Amino acid sequence: MALTGIMILKMLPKTNCGECGIPTCLAFGMKVAAGQIEIGECPYVSDEVKETIGEASAPPIRSIKIGGGDAVMTTGGETCLFRHDRRFENPTGLGVLITTDMSDADVDGRIARFNSIRIERVGVLMKADLIAIKDSKGDEGAFTSLVQKVLDNAPDAKLILMSDNPDTIGAGAKACGDRKPLLLGANKDNREAMGNLAKELGCPLGVIGSNIDDAVEISEALIKDGLKDLVIDTGARTMRAALEDNVLARRAAINKKFKPLGFPTITFPCDMTDDPLMEVMVASVLIAKYAGIVILSDLQGDTLFPLLLERLNIFTDPQRPMVVKEDIYPLTGPDENSPVLITCNFSLTYFIVAGEIEGSRVPSWLLIKDTEGLSVLTAWAAGKFGADLIAMFINKCGIADKVKHRDLIIPGYLASIKGELEEELPDWTITIGPREAGHMPAFLKEWKPAA
User: Fold this and answer.
1) Looking at the domain assignment, is residue 16 inside a domain?
2) First and final CA of the chain: distance in angstroms?
3) With the C-alpha atoms ordered 384, 441, 310, 73, is the resulting torsion angle positive or negative?
4) pTM for this structure?
5) Residues 215, 287: one domain?
6) Which of 220, 151, 114, 235 is CA-nearest to residue 185?
């Protein structure tokens, strides 16, 4: 019988310490019951309680951690088939493949691009997560040397070690130390040795099947051997096969509670096509349905960015609008004579307005007021973007110290509050901006501060 939040609460310490990241033990118990968090996240719960609650309340897709220290990535932990039913929990890990038969220049280039491609959007730093290191020559020394190069030159990379030789993969894993890698290489022939190695090192283990039925058989055997942290590669190397396997695995785990498929999957678009654009298209499909990890052949800013953006949009709570931080945003190098504009913190509004300002090439100060993610008119109607709140924000944000003039441009849809805002900000001239962001460039080019 599934445990309820109240039943779980009775087994918790009830200290409301918040160290689990949840403010109260009741809220924590509710999340555990819903499969959104694991009982082990509570630092004070006993091992007996963990054992009692763990199996009953674990998410249908087990959460798997790769890495160590501050560089840890979690995959899996999913509880639903469709994002609108609840939400997707842990973003698909994006990684790049390097192999022992690549030239030093190719390896160095991939590592350099892994380190350099960093994109910030709506206050979130977007980047690749993993480097997969493949033993393609059967050379333990070359493999260990390549692992060490990645460890030395990509300090925040989570590692996937790929080999079907337990000795080779063990040597590489031991070099990783506390940066616990995913050991990808357990098949029918080496399952027992790979399982023992994963237990010894405390690393998650990757199952490699020739097809999904083969992967299930290996997974079942490893579960019986006491392995709990698995990642599954069904062996699919076409988009259709990978998509079908991912959907089948997710449905079996969510709807049927089928434990051998209750783990995140890893997919390899890098092995499915030689066309970089087709590879990105395949990856985009697998991010949506339902890959835990996607491995690419290379990282390029123009192809990685749309994948990062897709992932950001999919792995957000649909019940919470995407927002940007309340702050002053300098666009195209403003100075003390540049115009000052204000709008809400709904991310779509911010990016549209900011894009038009940057397109105008008019240096400007864009003030973002926290409206809890509501758009301009909705926020005004909800009382979150009224004259009094705008005035409080203007007075405390520090914009007055950055400009000589006192001219504030408000969205055209807020024209009705101009009089109220002038009363709240008697030292400021309130200018009504355009209603549509597309008219912003022409407006700004003609703007002059009030005399």
Assistant:
1) yes
2) 73
3) negative
4) 0.76
5) yes
6) 235
The domain tally of the chain equals 3
Q: Which two tokens stand for residue 421?
A: 């805002």
pLDDT in tens, 99-151: 999 999 999 999 999 999 999 876 678 999 999 999 999 999 999 999 999 99
Single-letter amino acid code for the residue at 423: E
Q: DSSP states of 129-166 as a string?
A: -EEEEE--S--HHHHHHHHHHHHHH-TT-EEEEE-S-H
Name the DSSP class of 265.
B
| Structure-token pair, residue 249 | 């695995």
350 conformational bin, left if phi > 0, alpha if psi -120 to 50, beta if neither: alpha
245's tokens:
């396997």
| Burial bucket for residue 47 (CB in 10 Å: 0-12, 13-18, 19+) | exposed
**Structural domain harbouring 426:** 327-446
| Residue where the block lists tokens 């980047």 | 127
Tokens representing 167?
């000795």
**How many residues can be counted in the chain?**
451
Type of residue found at 433: G
**Residue 321 in domain:** no
